[in-house]
């Protein structure tokens, strides 16, 4: 997929959402951008907000609080619907980041006292004023723009101490998505392709038909050469790539290679790899030493930054002649077991940099199964005389849909694919978790953000041994239709903030009142909910708003209050009053 194609597809995605939303393009763009960044582990648990005062030059579009790292991330968007994908000047980049920095500085001084409690950014301003120096001590700024920052120069928007910032233009997002999308199965013949050989020792195993495991070492030069040829496709299942020696760990790798190369094998943890199949010969009649001739589907599932750092060292002409890396190779003997074993290797292997849970779980068997089901499940046609023409497209990896669209070989095939898989029916894994867990009556978990909720979703699926079949997929889609209808209703109520919390708590309360028994078969067949349910959602949403904005301790930060189990438990106590208003008849289909 070329950059221009990606820009056009991304623009269409925004415009499609505008048609089905009461929000403006900039806020929809902001949400799309941070969803991509969250799904690729760049940030997490982002809360959308909006604060702007033109007179004093301040602005913010979203924020994320990481209590573990004691870090607050503030997002500001520079969106141009007319000059989409055009160049943005360094001056305008500095101006945009200056606005969000000023927002933080103004909030630290107590801006919250001048805001109405109904202001969209009241909760953020309160958080900054009350928690800076306590819950968080570091601040990072993200500029999100649909333009191209061609200058790509370091900026200094504020005089004084340097600030921690990232600039994400549309091209950088395009690069990120391309890095995380595999293009083809890798087939490597070490001697033929690289004039080298790989010799490893087989780990003895008893009655193990799922995989064979080999351990040993690989020359750093060979690994760098392989990475040079295959690039990010080599670490697709590692999900994250590490292209520059930035963090302390990466710089440590580089410095060891440069100054103490003989110590590298002692200092580095090595790499974990998997392969779909292998051509392997024993070196001796007895013993367990083998020569790895070729590998198919070779992937580095742990050790991405080691690999990329070694490649960068090679480019910098650092001598790798006497450098070796520990390697573990797991050859999966059963195609059915490939994703499940790979997922666990990715998750359980030691990681040197943090990887998001949704990244680690991208190859979880349940998600793979949902993806497979979505590709063969047709949406019911409302016209009984016509066959089904559309599907819901489950996007296991963020950006998967755009990649699939642009993989079509001709304009006609692309149109046919989009007709069969419309953008309005793309379902991401974090959305799936949100819909499912809201109906499972844990809105306080959903309120903790997409990453935290996704982790609990996968844990729930595994612990409860939930069957991933066609009925579950249709149920998830139907829960999503209900959830999104509730979202529209809450938008129409025009509350000044906390929409995500109101929607999740409202759906959870409907589930609680109906004891999880609801006619989702009807929702699936109609791809909609009826007016009676809409009215009930509206009534519950009004109760929800009153509840979450009236915490037991006056002045409590509402966003943080919604994340507490106490918020949900006290809301359930009020269900008797709500039930009297809405329960006239119950849907009695299977859950």
What does the model show?
- The protein is an alpha/beta fold and 591 residues long.
- It folds into 3 domains: 3-178, no CATH class; 183-356, no CATH class; 368-396 and 422-582, no CATH class.
- It contains 25 helices and 15 strands.
- Strands 6, 7, 8, 9, 10, 11, 12 and 13 form an 8-stranded mixed sheet that branches. Strands 1-2-3-4-5 form a 5-stranded mixed sheet.
- A hairpin with a 4-residue loop joins strand 1 and strand 2 (58-66).
- The longest helix is centred in the last third of the chain and has 24 residues, at 470-493.
- Residues 237-249, 350-360 and 585-591 have low confidence and may be disordered.
Structural class: alpha/beta
Please describe the biggest sheet, giving its number of strands, its sense, and whether it closes into a barrel. 8 strands, mixed
- Count of individual helical segments: 25
Beta fraction of the residues? 15-25%
Shape: globular
Query: What fraction, in percent, of the residue positions are helical?
Result: 40-55%
Using only CA atoms, what is the Rg?
26 Å
- Poorly predicted ranges (pLDDT <50, ≥5 residues)? 237-249, 350-360, 585-591
Average pLDDT confidence is 85
Structural domains: how many: 3
Query: What is the CA-CA span between the terminal residues?
Result: 41 Å
Per DSSP E runs of 2 or more residues, the count of β-strands stands at 15
InterPro entries: AIPR_C, AIPR_N
Domain Abortive phage infection protein C-terminal: 236-552
Pfam family, one: AIPR_N
Protein name: AIPR protein
List the helices and strands and how they pair.
Blueprint: H1 3-19, H2 25-39, E1 46-53, E2 58-66, E3 71-78, H3 90-108, H4 122-131, E4 138-145, E5 164-168, H5 170-179, E6 187-189, H6 190-194, E7 198-202, E8 211-219, H7 220-230, H8 248-259, H9 264-267, E9 271-275, E10 277-282, E11 289-296, E12 299-302, H10 304-315, E13 324-332, H11 338-348, H12 357-360, H13 365-374, E14 393-395, H14 400-407, H15 411-420, E15 426-428, H16 429-439, H17 443-446, H18 450-463, H19 470-493, H20 499-513, H21 520-526, H22 531-548, H23 558-561, H24 565-573, H25 575-582
Parallel strand pairs: 3-4, 4-5, 9-13, 14-15
Antiparallel strand pairs: 1-2, 2-3, 6-11, 7-8, 7-11, 8-13, 9-12, 10-11
């Amino acid at each position: 997929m070329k950059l221009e194609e990606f820009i056009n597809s991304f623009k269409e995605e925004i415009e499609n959402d505008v048609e089905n939303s009461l929000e403006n393009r900039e806020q929809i763009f902001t949400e799309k951008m941070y969803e991509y960044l969250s799904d690729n582990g760049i940030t997490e648990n982002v809360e959308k907000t909006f604060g702007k005062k033109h007179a004093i030059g301040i602005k913010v579009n979203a924020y994320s609080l990481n209590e573990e790292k004691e870090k607050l991330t503030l997002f500001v968007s520079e969106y141009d619907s007319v000059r989409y994908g055009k160049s943005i000047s360094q001056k305008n980049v500095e101006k945009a980041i200056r606005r969000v920095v000023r927002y933080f500085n103004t909030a630290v001084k107590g801006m919250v006292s001048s805001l109405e409690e109904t202001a969209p950014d009241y909760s953020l301003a309160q958080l900054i004023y009350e928690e800076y120096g306590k819950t968080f001590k570091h601040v990072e700024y993200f500029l999100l723009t649909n333009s191209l920052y061609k200058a790509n120069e370091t900026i200094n928007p504020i005089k004084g101490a340097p600030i921690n910032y990232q600039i994400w233009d549309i091209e950088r997002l395009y690069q990120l998505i391309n890095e995380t999308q595999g293009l083809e199965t890798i087939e490597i013949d070490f001697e033929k392709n690289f004039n080298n050989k790989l010799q490893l020792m087989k780990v003895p195993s008893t009655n193990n038909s799922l995989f064979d495991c080999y351990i040993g070492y690989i020359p750093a030069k060979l690994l760098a050469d392989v990475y040079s040829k295959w690039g990010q496709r080599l670490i697709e299942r590692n999900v994250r790539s590490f292209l520059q020696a930035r963090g302390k760990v990466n710089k440590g790798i580089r410095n060891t290679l440069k100054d103490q190369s003989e110590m590298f094998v002692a200092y580095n943890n090595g790499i974990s790899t998997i392969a779909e199949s292998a051509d392997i010969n024993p070196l001796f009649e007895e013993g367990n030493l083998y020569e790895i001739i070729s590998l198919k589907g070779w992937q580095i599932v742990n050790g991405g930054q080691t690999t990329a750092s070694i490649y960068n060292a090679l480019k910098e002409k650092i001598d790798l002649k006497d450098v070796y890396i520990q390697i573990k190779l797991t050859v999966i003997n059963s195609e059915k077991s490939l994703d499940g074993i790979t997922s666990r290797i990715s998750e359980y292997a030691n990681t040197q940099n943090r990887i998001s849970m949704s990244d680690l779980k991208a190859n979880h068997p349940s998600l793979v199964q949902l993806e497979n089901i979505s590709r063969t499940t047709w949406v019911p046609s409302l016209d009984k005389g016509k066959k089904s023409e559309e599907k819901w497209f489950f996007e296991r990896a963020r950006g998967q849909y755009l990649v699939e669209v642009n993989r079509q070989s001709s304009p006609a095939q692309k149109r046919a694919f989009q007709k069969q898989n419309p953008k309005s029916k793309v379902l991401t894994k974090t959305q799936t978790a949100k819909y499912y867990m809201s109906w499972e009556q844990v809105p306080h978990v959903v309120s903790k953000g997409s990453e935290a909720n996704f982790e609990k979703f996968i844990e729930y699926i595994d612990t409860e041994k939930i069957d991933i079949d066609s009925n579950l997929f249709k149920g998830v889609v139907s829960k999503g239709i209900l959830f999104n209808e509730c979202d529209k209703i809450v938008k129409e109520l025009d509350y000044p903030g906390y929409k995500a919390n109101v929607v999740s708590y409202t759906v959870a309360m409907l589930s609680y009142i109906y004891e999880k028994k609801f006619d989702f078969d009807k929702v699936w067949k109609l791809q909609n909910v009826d007016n009676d349910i809409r009215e009930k959602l509206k009534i519950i949403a009004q109760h929800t708003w009153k509840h979450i904005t009236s915490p037991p301790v006056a002045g409590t930060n509402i966003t943080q209050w919604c994340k507490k189990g106490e918020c949900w438990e006290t809301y359930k106590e009020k269900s008797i009053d709500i039930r009297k208003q809405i329960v006239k008849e119950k849907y009695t289909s299977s859950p």
